[in-house]
Specification:
Elements (H helix, E strand, L loop, with lengths): L1 E4 L7 H14 L5 E4 L6 H9 L2 E4 L9 E4 L6 H9 L3 E4 L3 H15 L3 E5 L5 H9 L5 E3 L13 E6 L5 H11 L5 E4 L5 H14 L4 E5 L5 H13 L3 E4 L15 E6 L5 H14 L2
Parallel strand pairs: 1-12, 2-3, 2-4, 4-5, 6-7, 6-8, 8-9, 10-11, 10-12
Length: 278
């Protein structure tokens, strides 16, 4: 059974940067907490905890030491409040997410009705919403668009891990409703690369395995994209979830991993698949 890995797969620059910032903070010897999971990868979060980086559910749980802002970003008011409490703040927000924040803020300031394409409950989207002043409309699908927008001057920003097809569908639906439509494609380049290479590989193999947190938006999107072209697609966090029956009769297996998936996690799954054929 041949195992092929997507050309672009696994941890991205923004995630690697955040992990390094958290570990550097831990070396100071002061208490270090992340505000929510640093990234959407339970195994990586547990590894950080073992090295002294704890997770706080909210700012009220942190009274001293260092607070690390997760890759998904937060409401700027939270950062201000943390500094007012005397905390050392390390902002590990992904640079691509910061760009989406700036775009949303600018669109709102210029009087556009802001539409955010993304998952309403996702922390990244909550941060983008806060930067837009809180009045933006969040839609994941065309059906989520309200009957009436605040203005016919519409500005669009998108969650960095969304798929281009979702953004395009929403933009197409907005075109006849807007007198002016400004679209900022803030999907990060790493996401786009991983999505395209995963789809290409899924089309050519018998079975496709996507590795990453079940709570990871970008990994779930990879699984959706691969499933659309290969019904034998499976999403796992670790090698323990693999099922030998998935690979019955398969000559080739493709593997990809979300941008929040450390390389050792992906390699562990690859090694387990190869061992099945030994």
């Amino acid at each position: 059974m041949r195992v092929e890995v997507a050309r672009y797969a696994g941890v991205c620059y923004g995630v690697e940067r955040a992990l390094n910032l958290a570990l550097e903070a831990a070396r100071s010897g002061r208490p270090v907490r992340t505000l929510g999971p640093l990234i959407h990868n339970p195994q990586a979060v547990e590894s950080l905890r073992a090295r002294g980086v704890e997770v706080a559910g909210c700012l009220e749980e942190v009274d001293d030491g260092t607070l690390v802002i997760r890759t998904h970003g937060v409401d700027p008011a939270i950062i201000a409040a943390a500094r007012d409490k005397g905390l050392d703040v390390v902002d590990a927000t992904c640079p691509f997410v910061s760009t989406a924040h700036q775009v949303a803020e600018r669109l709102a300031a210029e009087g556009y009705a802001v539409v955010i394409v993304g998952e309403a409950a996702h922390p990244e989207v909550e941060g983008i919403l806060a930067h837009s002043g809180g009045d933006a409309v969040v839609v994941e699908e065309v059906a989520d668009l309200p009957e009436k927008l605040a203005s016919r001057r519409v500005g669009v920003v998108v969650q960095t891990t969304q798929s281009l097809s979702r953004l395009t569908a929403v933009v197409d639906a907005l075109l006849p409703r807007a007198s002016e439509l400004r679209v900022h494609n803030t999907i990060c380049s790493a996401t786009g690369q991983r999505q395209r290479s995963a789809e290409e590989l899924a089309r050519t193999v018998d079975v496709m395995v996507v590795v990453g947190g079940h709570n990871s938006g970008n990994t779930n999107r990879l699984a959706e994209i691969c499933t659309a072209v290969n019904s034998r697609t499976h999403h796992v966090e670790t090698a323990d979830e693999l099922d030998a029956t998935w690979f019955a009769g398969a000559e080739s297996v493709g593997v990809t991993a979300g941008a929040s998936t450390p390389d050792e996690q992906m390699q562990g799954v690859i090694a387990a698949i190869e061992a099945m054929d030994a």
